[in-house]
Design a protein that fits this description.
Structural class: mainly beta
Strand content: 35-45%
Largest sheet: 6 strands, antiparallel, barrel
Strand order of the largest sheet: 2-3-4-7-6-5
Order of helices and strands: EEEEEEEH
CATH class: Mainly Beta
CATH superfamily: predicted glycosyltransferase like domains
CATH architecture: Beta Barrel
Helix content: 10-25%
Shape: globular
Distance between the termini: 22 Å
Amino acid sequence: MSLRAPIAVTVEVRAAGRRVFRLAENLGEDGIALERRAPFEIGRPVEVAFALPDDPDPLRLPARVEIRGGDEDDDRESTAGGRALTFLAVGEDDRRRLQGYVRERLELPELPR
């Protein structure tokens, strides 16, 4: 699990020719939490697209729909959607961008190179 920072950006979630938009709640290098459920079944692979504040290039990442820890309904069989999207593959450049956002937002020092 990675560090998480609050974020309020619109996230586009796509799967099987369908797309929805949700507001993000927090972000880490391993995934993004949504304020409302995404209407895709738990475990479904999706593509997410969103822009970091003050970063002109949107991120497009493969992800999987998950139940966010603390959700009141954690029955994986009956839940129609989740509020967490776990990134499946993050390139090195995108990982640096995500880490940079989290460090800046949490006011953490730069990592040595």
